[in-house]
Amino acid sequence: MLSVQNLHVYYGRIHALKGISLEVNAGEIVALIGSNGAGKTTTLATLSGLLRPREGHIYFEGRDLTRLPAHQIVRLGVVHCPEGRQVFARLTVTENLRLAAAHRTDRKNVARDLEYVHQLFPILAERRNQHAGTLSGGEQQMLAIGRAIMSRPRLLLLDEPSLGLAPMVVETIFRVIGSLRQHGVTILLVEQNAYRALQLADRAYVMETGYIKASGLSQVLADDPAVKAAYLGG
Amino acid sequence: MLTPSYVAQQVINALNIGSIYALVAIGLTVVYGILRLINFAHGDMMTVGAYVALAALTALAMPAVAALLIAMLVVSALGIVIERLAYRPLRGAPEVAMLITSLAISSLIQNGATMTLTAQPRPVRLPAELTQRISALGLSFAVMDVIIIALAIALMVALTLFVQRTTLGIAMRACSENVRVTQLMGIDVNRVIAVAFAISAGLAAAAGVLWTGKFGIVDPFTGFLPGLKAFVAAVIGGIGNIPGAMLGGYLLGFAEVFFVAFMPPEVSGYRDAFVFVLLLIVLLVRPSGLLGAREVNRA
Ligand SMILES: Nc1ncnc2c1ncn2[C@@H]1O[C@H](COP(=O)(O)OP(=O)(O)O)[C@@H](O)[C@H]1O
Ligand SMILES: [Mg+2]
């Protein structure tokens, strides 16, 4: 479904991605793990068109996304739920959700997706007219995921959805990720919580300082002594 | 001198000037909110609007309403073209680059108008039904005064509904929080920015037409001072904030008119300096303006 070939990305003169290649197949959850500063967020931002690679290609279902503007990539079904929630604080919950669906023409399904979001996160229905800035961190993360759902993702790029959240909320978020897969959404999941990510994912890539260091089935990686030592606390 | 009817007369005057400042300030604030651009060419959109309306009124003998609409349309289109040619290539460049570009555009319009139309102020002859004076409740005012206030309020209500209710309006507010993330919602931000420029310039054109309608002349520098004042109004209200721009516009209109009306002549000549003193005082007390929020993080 997604095929990434030899991406090189720079911030000015900083060489942040040094030849990243990865594949995501339809229906999979693929985890991207690695320590802080490894380049995970940069990878997702490049896939969604926020950053331009200096070299390399991104194909989604055979289409070259490499030079497409970000909003057109969303319209093809590649939806990026960014690190740090990034909800629009001065828009209401409903406005945040409505905005994310604004490009869609299938009005009937939009209404159905909104119901689905409210069913996954009932608190968002309760707070629908509140400004997103007044929500707690966990609620904002729910809104960020809800917003991504409203864009009708076929491939969802999730960046650190559990970062800084209470354990209860983390459970909710991981349950929802699982349920999205049931609904046919393919997921590329970036996580600090490597243990949980490897539990949920089918396959994983391990990143380090701009390179892919290892890849394979989640269970295999979880048992790998090097991976264990570096990311799973021994 | 301080009769109730004199005061009431000044209130009408202040509402007039304030309405116009408010319209101009909104345009500045809408564009600033999204691009962090202080658009020094904004006042010149008033000038262009006034000339276009004048041409429509005299050369084409159009009715006043049609002249106003044509002016708004032409200047909106001009706003879109300027954004496309001058500001879009600078997207991501330091904010000061855009600011200098806007100064260049301002000079270009002023010099261009002087070269082609001469600096000679042109009288604007309004149709008689607009200059007709009405006397009521001991007050005497021109029909034009009422039209200025009513039209400005109608435009502000329309803009508020647009920004609050429509998807494009929501997208504009989203962009003013974070352009990058707005793209991730599948929104074509170039289109949103173009619309913001069109609205901004269109409102300035309306303000320019009303301004020349009130004062009766237009020259290449007509919009310069009100443009500057509107910037002050936008900052007083909290730049980037639309209700703030409206509030700032009216506050400034009242401050200025009352300063002139109630200060002795040897002081009231400093009206324009007074405006900037007022700005300084507001900023000392409230650095982000009356309704301005603290800057949200634009990661
Ligand atoms: N906006 C930026 N400007 C300059 N360098 C950046 C920027 N964002 C990230 N980097 C650098 O790029 C590298 C990868 O960062 P990032 O993709 O955020 O890593 P991760 O998400 O894995 O923690 C880091 O060395 C980081 O310092
Ligand atoms: Mg990151």
Describe the structure.
The complex is a heterodimer of chains A (234) and B (299). Chain A is an alpha/beta fold and 234 residues long. Chain A has helices at residues 40-47, 70-75, 93-100, 107-120, 122-126, 137-150, 167-182, 194-200, 218-223, 225-231; strands at 2-11, 14-24, 29-33, 55-60, 63-64, 78-81, 155-159, 186-190, 203-208, 211-217. Chain A starts with a strand and ends with a helix. Helix content of chain B is 74%, strand content 4%. In chain B, helix 7 crosses helix 9 and helix 11 (242-262) crosses helix 13 (271-285). Chain B is mostly helical and 299 residues long. The longest helix of chain B is centred in the N-terminal third of the chain and has 32 residues, at 4-35. Chain B has one domain (4-223). Chain B has 13 helices and 4 strands. Chain B has a two-stranded antiparallel ribbon. In chain B, strands 2-3 form a two-stranded antiparallel ribbon. The mean pLDDT of chain B is 92. Chain B is globular. Classes of the chains: A alpha/beta (234), B mainly alpha (299). Bound molecules: adenosine-5'-diphosphate and magnesium ion. Adenosine-5'-diphosphate binds at residues 11, 14, 16, 34, 36-42 of chain A.
